Amino acid sequence: MQRVVRLADVLSTVCGRYTSYLIVPMIAVIVLTACLRYFFDIAVDWGFETSLFLYGIHGFLGGSYVLMTKGHICVDIVPMHLPARWRRYLQLFSFGVVLAVALIMTWLGCIWAWKSTMIWEHSIHQTAFNPPIWWFKWVVPMAAAMVALQAVAEMVRMSASASEETREAR
Amino acid sequence: MNIYPLLMFVVLFIGLAAGIQVAFILAAVPLGFAFFIWGPQGMMTLIQGAWGAMNNFVLTAIPMFVFMAVLLEKSGIVEDLYTCFYKWSGPLRGGLAIATVIVGTIIGAVSGVVAAGVIGLGLIALPQMQRYKYDRGIAVGSVLVGGTLGQIIPPSTNMVVYGAVTNLSVGKLFAAGVSSGLLFSLTFCIYILIRSWINKDLCPALPKEARASWADKLISLRAVVLPALLIVVCMGAIFSGAATPTEGAAFGALGSIVFAVCTRRFRWDIFQECCITTVRVTVMVLWMIAGASAFSAVFAGIGGNRAVMEFALAMPGGKWGAFSASFAFIFFLGMFLETTAIILLAAPIVTPILINLGFEPLWWGIIFQLLLQTAYISPPFGMSLFYLKGVAPPDVDLEAIFKFSIPWIGLQVIAIILIVVFPVMGMWLPWWLFGQ
Predict the structure, then answer these.
(1) Residues in chain B within 8 Å Cβ distance of A27
(2) Any long-range contacts for B317-324 (C-beta under 8 Å, 24+ apart)?
(3) According to the model, what pLDDT value does residue A169 have?
(4) What would the pLDDT profile of A51-99 be if each residue is shown by its tens digit?
(5) Closest CA to A91 of A104, A78, A106
(6) Which residue does chain B place closest to A62, by CA atoms?
(7) Considering B44, B83, B154, B195, which has the largest number of Cβ atoms within 10 A of its Cβ?
């Protein structure tokens, strides 16, 4: 089980770190497109979709990293006032919900992205660039699968720390 | 009567209270309801929500505005500006608190992230005001409201989200943010002046030896040049229509890199930290939008919007009754929920109703944003209160911060009501720029 935790953590960290750098090409593409259009009157047809691709990858693939580092916000009024054991149950339940959502999203996402791949789907945005987008759809199930893995890891980590605490209490 | 829509909200609030991450409970509720009402096919709404969020060009402005804010904060912009205005505020009673509000206003104009302003001012301005024996309530309050101005003074990530959800022009919203943000800022300054004029020991003027000379004052203005340039270029491009908000954001982010390099504060580790903070905020917002779009799609699909509409029309007092109910609803949500979540939950339901009743979309949009501004500082869960607690001296506890925030919430409500009654007070800039 510890291996799952390690694998999830490494995967999330690496993914979070590298996708975070995508902000740089995102800025570059948009600045370049705008400059070319405004100062040189050159219309760049790939700027719009490229920045959307970068943004989508940036925002979705970081999901498991943010779950690991507790970056998804939650309202912890009630849990704060509960005894430690109940708080732990609630947290386990909450990661259970995350896991369920992520699994459903992975499953539905795969079907949806597979359909798109079968027809080599191209962009709906009607630009001259018209890039293929079937690969972009795979970002959703991939990100969701990683969140599911990380949710399992968090649950394992929590029950491990819980059993340690009870051992110490004895 | 159709009870499913109500039930959706009940389940959502139970889940939120149980401490489930907002993004995932927002996704889980529509998944459940869609499955039981429409069968497995209905669950595709979540995927559609995610896909819609990934393909929304307006939203791409968010990571760039966040990056800009974090990099500017890390390169010490708050400190620079405060040093400058601190020197100018010398002989004035309450001057330091006013300097705090003014610096907050300027920070707000280069940063769309509230945390940057509150934390920066909390670290820099609060100790100064304590040293010169300022009243706690004024000191803490001015940092709270000054730092939070970043939410209403553009660029603002929340306005980007609101624009994306309600199809309102983000540029116009930004313009309205400038004029109503200035009204807020002015209200705060007048309040500080009046309080310190009535009671001269409340916020004493600086002692003679601590005041800066004229030469010093003029030299300190150097610190304002670069941020001012950034504001003019970034906002000017958006307001003149030369650039979309997303392009303005990209130029702003580039400008913040230039600023960091020019002030010799650009370091690799700072850059990495900025990237990480940016991805954290972007991810949080994007996943929440994915969940919330599914939520509002299912809510509308099972007749929720119609039910709310009927309820609103049955309100006593006609359209102003519906307006007051929406106002109270958002204020109430603001006490408990994070601001992006409030937009995503309330805007798709409330906004179309009010527009149908004949209210101006832009005007209502800005009232909505101003209410969120208040949400940031209203106990028990205003985010700014917690940001400030994180950096305040240890003897300022959370309860004290809660208590200090109350008069300032009152001030904000007064300012909002002013804009409700006299729209021109908050809308003169967009009306002047784009016509009424």
Answers:
(1) 64, 67, 250, 253-254
(2) B319/B354, B319/B357, B319/B358, B319/B359, B322/B353, B322/B354, B322/B357, B323/B354, B323/B357, B323/B359
(3) 63
(4) 999 999 999 999 999 998 887 877 777 787 888 888 888 889 999 999 9
(5) A78
(6) B283
(7) B154
Whether omega before B352 lies within 30 degrees of 0, making that bond cis, reads no
Mean pLDDT, residues B43-63: 89
**Residue-level length of chain B:** 436
Ranges of each domain in chain B: 56-266+303-434
Q: Is the dihedral of CA A91, A97, A100, A103 positive or negative?
A: negative
- Above 90 in pLDDT, residue B338? no
Percentage of chain B beyond pLDDT 90 is 28
| Residue A149 structure tokens | 């893995």
- B292 within 8 A of B29, measured Cβ to Cβ: no
Is there a contact between B30 and B297 (Cβ–Cβ < 8 Å)?
yes
d(CA A11, CA A18): 11
Report whether A59 contacts B282 (CB < 8 A): yes
Distance CA B351, CA B118 (A): 29
Dihedral (C-alpha) B357, B360, B365, B366: value to the nearest 10 degrees?
A: -130
Of B357, B307, B25, whose CA–CA distance to A97 is shortest? B25
Residue from B372, B310, B380 nearest B344 by CA: B372
Confidence band, pLDDT 50/70/90 cuts, at residue A168 = low
Is the Cβ–Cβ distance between A144 and A106 less than 8 Å? yes
The rounded distance, in Å, linking the Cα atoms of A20 and B236 is 29
CB atoms within 10 A of CB A122: 13
Q: Per residue in B214-256, pLDDT tens?
A: 888 888 888 788 888 888 888 888 888 888 888 888 998 998 8
Supply the angle between the helices B339-356 and B318-336 in degrees, to the nearest 10: 170
Distance from CA of A77 to the nearest CA of B (A): 7
Instruction: List, for residues B269-307, the tens digit of each pLDDT value.
Output: 989 989 998 999 899 889 999 998 899 889 888 888 888
Question: What are the angstrom distances between the C-alpha of A88 and each of A96, A155, B235?
Answer: 12, 10, 47
CB-nearest to B50 from A52, A76, A140 is A140
Cα B318 from Cα A150, distance rounded (Å): 50
By three-state DSSP, how is residue A133 classified? coil
CA distance A164 to chain B (A): 24
Beta bridge partners of A122: A132
For the whole model, what pTM was predicted?
0.89
Assess contact for B129 and B98: CB atoms under 8 A. no
